[in-house]
Amino acid sequence: MPESTKTRVIKTTYIDGIKSKPSLKSYKSGNLAETVENISDQSISNYLEPVAGPSLSAEDPCHNAHTQDCDSELLKILQEAEAELQDNLIKKTSGYSRTSKEYQESETVWKTRMETKEKEFEQQRDSLFEKIQEQICSGGTFCCASCHSSPLYVVRCGKCRQHLCAKCDLEKHRTLFTHKRTCVLDDQLLTLGPCEFVDHAGAIIIINIPIPLYEPSCCNSCFSSGSVRLSCGPTRVAVITKEGRFDVTSTLFVCSVCKVSRLATNEEYMYSGYWPGSLSHNSYFIEEDLISFWHHLRHKTPGTSERKFIETLEEISLDNDRVNIINRTLFNRSRREFEFHQYLLEKTIFRRHGKCKICGPHPHGMHADANRKLYRFAEASDRLGLSLYGDVRMAYDDSQLEHISKIEKKIPKAKGKGDDLCGSSTWKAAKGETSSKRNLDITGLEMMSCTHGTVVYSANLLKGETFKHTNLQHLKSHEMGTKFFCNDVVCKYWPFAIKVGHLFPEYQQLTKDMKPFLSRFHGLGHSWTCRVLYNGHWEKGGADMLGEEQEQVFSYMARLGATTKHQSKASRRDDLTSAILYFNSEKEKRMVTALCLWMNRAKERSLLYRKKLQNSLEHRDVKEEELPSILDRLKKQAKLVNSKNLTNDWDKQLLQKELEGECHMLKVMHARNANFFDTVGSPNTSTFER
């Protein structure tokens, strides 16, 4: 998007009655995504609804004028973004591709540029080392950056980038305890601690420093305004920041009028950005900036060890001559509370519930699948306490077991492996029953996501993936008003769902109101009859959905198994829920750009598919009006073949149909492979030709 269009939109919202102007980032990830699908049909005035607080009257002329201005501005932005994406797509699909000569030229230019940079460092490496050595040795005379005197003992602050005398250093760093300060005493470079200062004689003195907090507006005793000052408390406390551990003193509030003093409360520490590790003993605090940094890092790189992150902070503390012991249990407690409170803020104030705004109240389709990598060892220790999130994105184990036991009352457990063969593949998910693992308490995680890749449901697998687990996901998707239910083995599950509907009348609508959808890429391993009967793209409204959206989620979530397999049940549930919410939030931020890109791709593909269809119809001398009847005959033939799938009394006609179908699928696969191997190495082949 051009730079001139990035900052022209200003939207006024009301949070708890307070007028505010959110940044452009909120337009990329917030309510703007809700208007993209209806941008050509209706006004964008709904986008201007307040986030919270009192509503704005639609009859207000000022509000209408402001709405129209924002409407025109938003339309311009979306049109320009769509035009830019369209240009990029045309360039990408126009058949242009760099030749091998152009590839060689670009590689040569890049190699030359890298060699030039390497030579620059080689030529200046000695001078750079001299400067680094000078910085460490801290030799020479310096003037104080504050009073401009020439002191005998100079304190260098690596954070302020200043040289200070002893007096100015004490005045400036009595509240900035996280700054790294060094001083040369007796020809030795010393790193000063947060409470260590240098006097005029060159001796190190200890001065207690409290944790800097926001001062209360008035005294709780005499109610005098602006009279409360910070002072040092009676106890030593540890503060953990991105620079490591700092040992200072607790904070005391003293009134300059009535001289009454009191200790700061946990709420006042948290208000100032310091999260207590324990509410009963105020001796351990984690800085909010550090928790926020770790929150984003652990979700951007799932599976990263929290233990190693804390060990990194300990090494930083040790490098700066400070105490390097950090309590992992208290750090984990503060981090979990911080993430949960951030979720509450998103839910109550910003009204972001982690749901897909594009799907709305009636999602187009849901893809259900299970991941066996998110297991939990049975020997993992389990702590007391409940999960903070509860069933926000993960169903309780009891509700799942209750649903399974309800079905087992009328469909008892079957012996044997069951019918898990389809086509030439054996599907582990196509099981009616499963057994538990000896060393696993939880064998995996089943999840369900919408067409846009937003996770809407998940639950633990206590034994293994069965149709009874899938039926619960099917039930949840039906409650959301979903039209298509996607699954990797929907050809085996759908007869089971029909059977459950016959035995339980309350579940009959699951198969009547929804349509089965066989995942596109998993469908390549199924028989031709499954593709004919359960191919969602042959259903009206199937669109260009893959039915593989959950696989993209698993590529992110599966990496969490490295850490969650050793956690307690409550901690595992909290971490997985937090990861799901973070994943959904990141998906929402990219949704506006993705929708524009998908729309342009759909336009291009619709033209391509229309052209291919016309060529096929002309080649086979078939009219487009005859396609529905042809599809009906194919489905009847597929049902006849499936009805004899488990018997040996095949007649010649059914055997001939089955062989014809298998022969056709072999020809299709051969043609695809031949086309791929012929074009994958060609530099001048366009995207759609491939």
TrEMBL record:
<dbReference type="Pfam" id="PF18804">
    <property type="entry name" value="CxC3"/>
</dbReference>
<feature type="domain" description="C2H2-type">
    <location>
        <begin position="157"/>
        <end position="179"/>
    </location>
</feature>
<protein>
    <recommendedName>
        <fullName>C2H2-type domain-containing protein</fullName>
    </recommendedName>
</protein>
<dbReference type="InterPro" id="IPR040564">
    <property type="entry name" value="CxC3-like"/>
</dbReference>
<dbReference type="InterPro" id="IPR013087">
    <property type="entry name" value="Znf_C2H2_type"/>
</dbReference>
<dbReference type="InterPro" id="IPR040521">
    <property type="entry name" value="KDZ"/>
</dbReference>
<dbReference type="Pfam" id="PF18758">
    <property type="entry name" value="KDZ"/>
</dbReference>
